[in-house]
Amino acid sequence: MVTAEQVWSALEEIPDPEIPVISLVDLGVIRDVSVDGDRVRVELTPTFLGCPALEAMRRALADAVTNLGGEPDVAVITDDSWSTDRITPAGREKLREAGFAPPAPRAAGATTLVQLQSRAFRCPYCGSTDTRLENIFGPTPCRSIRWCAGCRQPFEQFKTI
Amino acid sequence: MSARSDLLLTLADDELVLGWRDSEWTGVAPTLEEDVAFSSIAQNEIGHARALYELAAVELGTDADALAFDREPEDYRCAPLVELRLLDDWALTIARRYLYEEADRLRIGTLMSSEDRELAGLAAKIDREEVYHRLHAELWAARLRDEPRFAAAVERLWPYALGMLPGEQRAELARRVGRNGAAAIHERGSHTPELAELWNEMTEVRRSAPGAQW
């Protein structure tokens, strides 16, 4: 019989479909794993609702459970339980190493333009905080584009949500 | 149909149709950065529509795609504001984004405190993403504030913006955008001729092969 620990270990090996340097567990999108006999329920929360990787994630989770001999029941939960604060410290470091600036911690209120224009954002390549916002939006819903004046190149900054 | 499903379809139809209209700027926006921004905003709005349709679909015994694409144009509940084809007029497009986000912020705020936990949870998730749409709209509205063309665009769309919200929320919307009521409001329930044209395009592939699995 499959145990929840085995399932969690298997899920730690599943890369994010869009940013394969980070696992779904590090991304914090696995909300819960519960085992009842052969039946394994995995609760998944999307990062952004329009994220096209959602279907690929759902399939990868189901396959991982099947490979362990379990019967998968993957539920997509569209409530407010995911935020970028759920990305693990290890996950943040993997993002940074791959050239994606990890998200700033959530503040008490909603993100403001003043915050986005502040110097709190560090370039993932050279470490400079002399960076500026280029575009609130980027190549995927989860990222913004910033410019680093230190190493004179653009970089992708994870949005805080 | 329950009041809940009706509300979900209203919200979803607004987001779907606006998502389509915003996506029309992909590739032809005035700057490359705005190509990226409008494409991303459109993707989010259509993602919100999908989540809202999925919630409604459970109760209505169908699926999100059927709700999005298999209804007749007159059965959509979207407000006339989102139907307007504003392509090639940047001032009107920004005016719509600004007015829509202000109205949407009001209704999402109400839903977040709903006793329906499923709906409140989804509204809170949508709200996190909408924060970035609002920042984009606020940036542009501030940049264009002194341009007569932008002022005229807001003036023209204001009666449409009021039509997005139920009567009791309109005074608050007017307060937030610094305007007064309007004489003839373009109410939800009536449709512009532009919706039928958009519907033709939006459902064309799906209608070409009914029942196909993609």
Task: Describe this entry's structure for a reader.
Chain A is α/β, with parallel strands linked by helices and 161 residues long. Chain A has 2 domains: 4-76, GMP Synthetase, Chain A, domain 3 (2-Layer Sandwich); 99-158, no CATH class. In chain A, 24% of the residues lie in helices and 24% in strands. Chain A has helices at 4-11, 24-27, 54-67, 89-97, 113-116; strands at residues 30-36, 39-44, 71-76, 100-101, 131-135, 143-148, 153-158. Chain A has a 4-stranded mixed beta sheet with strand order 4-7-6-5. In chain A, strands 1-2-3 form a 3-stranded mixed beta sheet. The termini of chain A are far apart. The relative contact order of chain A is 0.15. The model of chain A has no long low-confidence stretch (mean pLDDT 93). Chain B has 214 residues and is mainly alpha-helical. Chain B has one domain (3-208): Up-down Bundle (Ferritin). Chain B is 71% helix and 0% strand. Chain B has helices at 3-23, 32-60, 64-69, 80-83, 90-112, 117-144, 148-162, 167-177, 193-202, 204-208. The longest helix of chain B is centred in the N-terminal third of the chain and has 29 residues, at 32-60. Chain B is globular, with a radius of gyration of 17 Å. The mean pLDDT of chain B is 96. The chains are: A alpha/beta (161), B mainly alpha (214). The interface between A and B is medium-sized, with 26 and 31 residues.
